[in-house]
Amino acid sequence: MKEELVLDTLVDKVMAELERKLGREKTEDVAEGEDSEQEEERIAVPQPKWREGLRELLASTPARIGVWRAGTRPLTKEVLRFRRDHAAAVDAVYGEVSQSILDEFQLFAVETCFQNTENYLKRPDMGRIITDEGVSVIKQKCKQRPQVQIVVSDGLSANAIDANLRDVFPALLDSLRAYGLQWGTPFFVRGGRVACMDHIGEILQPDVFVLLIGERPGLVSAQSMSAYMCYRPRKGTVESQRTVISNIHKGGTPPIEAGAHIGTVLKKMLEQKASGVQLAI
């Protein structure tokens, strides 16, 4: 993502300035956009016994592996990257989904009883209940008893919606069209938890439900989205009755691919009248 590239550039500039002040010269130029050279840059372990194996391991995961140390402490560059990723995770939790992307897909917004971010983190139960005003708006604007109900929520990462919805949403609609499935009125829930789909299910009575929601951010990605799906969600639905596709982002499950696959899963739910552990995929 652009923000990550900018932050990487800033980290490199800080390191270059530190090296200049220490009177060191950089011994190696790393060309931007070349994967092999980027992998070499990630190999911080000096003279590894099995360089090829370490290279393959680093290429297989974005996890912090073999970051090495300076004495008993992490390398300065790794500390800066850690702080950058931690800051991105905090921003994801406290951020807000761009109004422009909601307008782009004509998603009206309702809220849960979460009140504010601090309360949202302390009281997950409040993110499962739509406000009375929100219930009234849903009843007024949404189609009742749709075959498929689509809802988007910021969850724990507003950045995940901004980063992925433009790819996931159209791909999902294309998939539903290809299978001849009809969807109701999509909308956005601010401050939603996964189980808000149960409350909405009581209101709209859909056959199947898909909630596109921001995942808890980590130090690898703060832009990961999940798609929770359920056959006829209602109050009292347990977690084993939900099906989920997680890790949807450009470094995980590709958003366009995820959108298409969600449609396939929803079709199977309708055919089998089941979801979660009872669904045969």
Structural commentary:
A 6-stranded mixed beta sheet has the order 3-5-4-6-7-8, sandwiched between helices. A two-stranded antiparallel sheet has the order 1-2. β1 and β2 form a beta hairpin. It is built from 10 helices and 8 strands. With 281 residues, it is α/β, with parallel strands linked by helices. It folds into 2 domains: 93 residues, Orthogonal Bundle (DNA Binding (I), subunit A), CATH 1.10.30; 180 residues, Ethanolamine ammonia-lyase light chain (EutC) (Rossmann fold, 3-Layer(aba) Sandwich). The chain is elongated, with a radius of gyration of 22 Å. The longest helix is centred in the middle third of the chain and has 21 residues. α1 packs antiparallel against α4 and α8 crosses α10.
Class of the largest domain, according to the CATH hierarchy?
Alpha Beta
CATH fold description of the largest domain: Rossmann fold
Instruction: Please write the string of helix (H) and strand (E) elements.
Output: HHHEEHHEHHEHEHEEEH
CATH 2nd-level architecture of the largest domain: 3-Layer(aba) Sandwich
How many separate structural domains?
2
Q: What is the rounded distance between the termini?
A: 32 Å
Count of helical regions: 10
β-strand amount: 5-15%
Average pLDDT confidence is 88
Largest sheet: 6 strands, mixed
What is the topology, as strand order, of the major beta sheet? 3-5-4-6-7-8
Which structural class do the helices and strands define?
Answer: alpha/beta
Unreliable residue runs: 25-34
Q: Sum up the overall morphology in one term.
A: elongated
Q: Helix content range of the residues, please?
A: 40-55%
CATH superfamily of the largest domain: Ethanolamine ammonia-lyase light chain (EutC)
